[in-house]
Amino acid sequence: MSILDSKIPEGPLADKWTNHKNTINLVNPANKRNIDIIVVGTGLAGGSAAASLAELGYNVKTFCYQDSPRRAHSIAAQGGINAAKNYQGDGDSDYRLFYDTVKGGDYRSREANVYRLAEVSGNIIDQCVAQGVPFAREYGGLLDNRSFGGVLVSRTFYAKGQTGQQLLLGAYSAMNRQINRGKIQAFNRHEMLDLVKVDGKARGIIARNLVTGEIERHSAHAVVLASGGYGNVFFLSTNAMGSNVMAAWRAHRRGAFFANPCYTQIHPTCIPVSGDHQSKLTLMSESLRNDGRIWVPKRKEDVEAIRAGKLKPTQLSEEERDYYLERRYPAFGNLVPRDVASRAAKERCDAGFGVNKTGEAVYLDFASAIQRYGKEKALTSGMHNPSAAEITKLGEEVIESKYGNLFQMYEKIVDANPYKTPMMIYPAVHYTMGGLWVDYNLQTTIPGCYAAGEANFSDHGANRLGASALMQGLADGYFVLPYTIGDYLSQDIRTGKIPTDTPEFDQAEKEVKDRIEKLMNGSGEHSVDYYHKKLGKIMWNKCGMSRNEKELKEAIEEIAVLREDFWKNVKVPGTINSMNPELEKAGRVADFLELGELFAKDALHRNESCGGHFREESVEQSGEQKGEALRDDKNFKYVAAWEYKGEPKDAELHKEDLVFENIELKTRSYK
């Protein structure tokens, strides 16, 4: 085991990034024209990185498996993006955003990285406004903010419930400008199948043209992986169906350490599972917790009546409802962090208070907000004696202006009107804080291979605060990577074009083709989805919202057996040299079957509860925090980075100790 060097700059926290930028090596504009960079993934992190690097003068190749970068999963982000501009005058600052992020991540992230993230957050908003992103505005025309879980200020900028889509269109427009200039070559409907190393450095990728089936070689002086997270290892998640771990996992197999794979975020406000044939889950934005109140009935007889269809939730009085987040966490109420809200919902449902037929749902109710906004709107409209119906109508109009598309989406899926009856929600897998280990420069343990956005192990520690994913992705792409990658590339100004007719590319292509042949040669007993669903059930039941030693050990063994069966018996129809979506899925599920085992191994080794990783053996036994997660700073105050050694069970652990000089380590409390 080695101790990892994160290359954090010396000096005071607030000066680290400025001093680092002032002292790292640069590449002059004339030399940038001779340097090639591959960017895999064109969501917010990849799209912003590609546009920025091309604008600087580098030659960029982008790869995405979608038919257009506009279809990256970043469009699904709904609620907003954080930035410490303090437009509300409620006490926000770079330090406050930094503190909230470290605390929200349960003290399992790097201080230096998180402070840099807070420091550049304001620049992101300026950049996006300049691109024309239609952020919501207040009456006077200033940008509006709302609040999100785990904070006591309003710092989230938003565009209704479509923030990710609007931000991605901004990055995509910046990319298009560079495509038209010839500085970006876009390879859509292409999937990276392997990373190519030459003399220990990342020098290219092997990709498959998903339309023709052709295997292609692409070289570059550096490779940036911005391919998102691995939540689909659970099969059912809020991720797009195509979201996968292949690019990151291929790099891991080539020597990039994989950090904290067990850190997975369970989002508290998702539409509950409806049946065995469901293929994904739908997220209802956390922004809804600004105005929605979460509750279950106080009495089990009311629960039974609701499940049987004999009682409607609107028929229960305030006294008959348990607003359990407001009861347990009075300081933050419905805006506790996601991990806290998710565990609280699970606790109520496990205790028998779940309100749908499966017993796995709680209510998210907007009746109070509709009345509050309606009365306010009536007053500002000069209506001094409005009727109850007028107040309700005005309140619904305000809610529609803030969340209208989310309410519409819920009604289309559930066939219930959330203006008139409470939404039903339940936690679901959403985001992954784990990913490829990177240093302060966003470089992995492979020289020349960088990871940005959700693909790296992130700045979010063990739990991401809401509206921080978009912030991190755009910070990495627009304001961090364009500086730090130059430090590495300054050594390549005399290297010249990287050839693809070399033994390293030959070997990588051969291994890719052999793997595809092996996938196609299964006995054909079961479909790819059969194995993916089985893996998902193991992951959710034994590595999901809570974990324990016994079940994690079972999961490791079960996944290994399932993986062996997959390679022998999977059925992949079609041919290799043509469009073949089942072959695409098979390759991705093969990687999930390896990642899943490493995930369980990491969760087993981390015998503490922190953030999204809740070990049943590690809970507070007494006092005000009784029953809450118990962190173990003495033994686990580090990033766990795993080195590939063949089978996941043989992965070798490397540690990066986390040093806290500016924030006091203490028990998280939202009470």
UniProtKB/TrEMBL annotation:
GO biological process terms, semicolon-separated: anaerobic respiration
Positions of the FAD-dependent oxidoreductase 2 FAD-binding domain: 36-470
Membrane-topology annotation of the record: Peripheral membrane protein
Principal EC category: oxidoreductase
GO-annotated cellular components: plasma membrane
Broad class of where this protein is predominantly found: membrane
InterPro entries, sorted: FAD-dep_OxRdtase_2_FAD-bd, FAD/NAD-bd_sf, Fum_R/Succ_DH_flav-like_C_sf, Fum_Rdtase/Succ_DH_flav-like_C, SdhA/FrdA/AprA, Succ_DH/Fum_Rdt_flav_su, Succ_DH/fumarate_Rdtase_cat_sf
Keyword line: Cell membrane, Electron transport, FAD, Flavoprotein, Membrane, Oxidoreductase, Transport
This protein's record includes keyword Oxidoreductase: yes
Membrane-crossing segments per the record: none
Signal peptide feature range: none
Record: active site: 338 (proton acceptor)
Subcellular location: Cell membrane
EC id: 1.3.5.1
GO molecular function: electron transfer activity; flavin adenine dinucleotide binding; succinate dehydrogenase (quinone) activity
Residues of the Fumarate reductase/succinate dehydrogenase flavoprotein-like C-terminal domain: 532-670
Known cofactor(s): FAD
Reactions this protein catalyses: a quinone + succinate = fumarate + a quinol
NCBIfam families linked: PRK07573.1 (NF005749), sdhA_Bsu (TIGR01811)
Family, per entry: Belongs to the FAD-dependent oxidoreductase 2 family. FRD/SDH subfamily.
Name by which UniProt lists this protein: succinate dehydrogenase
